[in-house]
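4.2 Preliminary Data

To establish feasibility before requesting continued support, the project team ran the inverse folding procedure on a target of 130 residues. The structure was first converted into the token representation described in Section 3, and no sequence information of any kind was made available to the design step. The complete token record follows.
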């Protein structure tokens, strides 16, 4: 067992700190609430900013802007500006973003399938306040 209780190293796991750091950063980036919702929404097709904001739900303009910039920076989203007055900006998934849809949809299906079990666990949970 490694130094962290409950964690078992497998021979195929990476030991390179640089690789671990990169994985940690990417997981933090792609597994946050807004990223998953934006990718899922763009999976239905390209959207302009305000339409995307409406479809995602209660996301602030600042948070949507930040999420879209980070998704674009990491290659998941393409931003297209049409030079008209006023300029039209559309967001769409790239090939990488389309690939990411598979695990996003799988996670959403898992949550839906296990919602009752999760709710029951939350109801039964009594914190240990020692």
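Position-by-position output of the design step:
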């Amino acid at each position: 067992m490694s130094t962290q209780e409950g964690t078992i190293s497998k021979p195929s796991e990476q030991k390179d700190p640089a690789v671990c750091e990169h994985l940690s950063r990417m997981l933090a980036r792609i597994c946050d609430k807004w990223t998953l919702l934006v990718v899922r929404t763009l999976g239905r097709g390209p959207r302009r900013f305000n339409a995307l904001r409406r479809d995602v739900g209660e996301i602030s303009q600042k948070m949507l802007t930040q999420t879209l910039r980070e998704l674009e920076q990491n290659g998941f989203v393409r931003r297209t500006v049409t030079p008209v007055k006023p300029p039209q900006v559309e967001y769409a998934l790239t090939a990488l973003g389309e690939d990411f849809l598979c695990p996003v949809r799988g996670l959403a299906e898992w949550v839906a399938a296990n919602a009752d079990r999760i709710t029951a666990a939350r109801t039964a949970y009594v914190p240990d306040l020692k």
